[in-house]
């Protein structure tokens, strides 16, 4: 068992706290169907988990020889996914339990997501989670998104933490590489959409957020001591 003691926790958002990837896949397939090209299966979509919509549509436009520029399809996709998120997005019950626990314990908490600010704001507002986080860093806040370490370095900085004093929870190879490259102790979470992805580079792996032992990382039931 690790003796590592953390002073703050940084969450990836999509896949870790919310089961959003099936909604993204559903919305991607709406656009592909409109274009008359084959839709993606869940295993085919896995390679885009942890990536950005821009990268996804650049590749899909090229691979399917679509006639319009990638931004045309991305704009249409974003209109579809916004409606889907407002209508269907929910928080994972175990994620809500963990967030309430770390809030109650006074543990500093942040979000580090490859989403753009617009999308994170929609998700936080839809789920009523805005007040749960001290810091939220998006791809639009840094020069390089995941798998570069910039997002996690920025989150730790804004939380007033040395990266080595934080713990991150991630569910994708790109996210794990990002957090690890920042020097953060990283927990890999297996989720329904990432079962086949290689998350072995994480410091440890859990199958459910209920396996995350807050006492193990932050001390048994005690409030965090002031930073020295």
Provide an overview of this structure.
By secondary structure, this protein is α/β, with parallel strands linked by helices. It folds into two domains: 8-19 and 90-218, 3-Layer(aba) Sandwich (Rossmann fold), CATH 3.40.50.1000; 21-88, DNA polymerase, domain 1. It has helices spanning 21-35, 42-45, 53-63, 70-88, 93-104, 117-127, 150-158, 173-181, 214-218, and strands at residues 8-11, 109-112, 135-137, 166-170, 185-189, 204-206. A six-stranded parallel beta sheet has the order 3-2-1-4-5-6, covered by helices on one side. Helix 1 crosses helix 4 (70-88) and helix 3 packs across helix 4.
Number of helices: 9
CATH level-3 fold name of the largest domain: Rossmann fold
- What does the overall shape look like? elongated
Cα(first) to Cα(last) distance is 25 Å
By DSSP, the count of extended strands is 6
Helix/strand class:
alpha/beta
Strand content: 5-15%
Helix content: 40-55%
Q: H/E series, N to C?
A: EHHHHHEHEHEHEEH
Q: Considering the protein shown, what is the CATH homologous superfamily of the largest domain?
A: HAD superfamily/HAD-like
Going by CATH, the architecture of the largest domain would be 3-Layer(aba) Sandwich
Rg, Å, rounded: 18 Å
CATH class of the largest domain: Alpha Beta
Average of pLDDT: 91
Low-confidence stretches: 222-228
């Amino acid at each position: 068992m690790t003796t590592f003691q953390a002073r703050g926790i940084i969450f990836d958002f999509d896949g870790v706290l919310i089961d959003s990837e099936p909604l993204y896949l559903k919305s991607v397939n709406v656009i592909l169907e409109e274009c008359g090209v084959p839709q993606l299966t869940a295993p085919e979509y896995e390679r885009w988990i942890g990536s950005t919509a821009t990268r996804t549509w650049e590749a899909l436009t090229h691979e399917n020889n679509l006639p319009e520029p990638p931004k045309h399809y991305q704009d249409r996709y974003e209109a579809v996914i916004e409606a889907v998120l407002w209508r269907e997005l929910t928080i994972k019950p175990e994620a809500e339990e963990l967030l309430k626990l770390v809030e109650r314990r006074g543990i500093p908490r942040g979000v580090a997501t490859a989403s753009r600010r617009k999308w994170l704001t929609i998700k936080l507002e839809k789920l009523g989670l805005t007040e749960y986080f001290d810091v939220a860093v998006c791809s639009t806040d840094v020069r390089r998104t995941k798998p570069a370490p910039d997002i996690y370095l920025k989150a730790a900085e804004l939380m007033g933490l040395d990266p080595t004093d934080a713990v991150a929870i991630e569910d994708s190879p790109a996210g794990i590489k990002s957090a690890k490259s920042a020097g953060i102790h990283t927990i890999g979470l297996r989720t329904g959409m990432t079962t086949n992805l290689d998350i072995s580079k994480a410091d440890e792996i859990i199958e459910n957020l209920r396996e995350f032992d807050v006492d193990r990382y932050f001390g048994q039931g005690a409030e965090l001591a002031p930073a020295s």
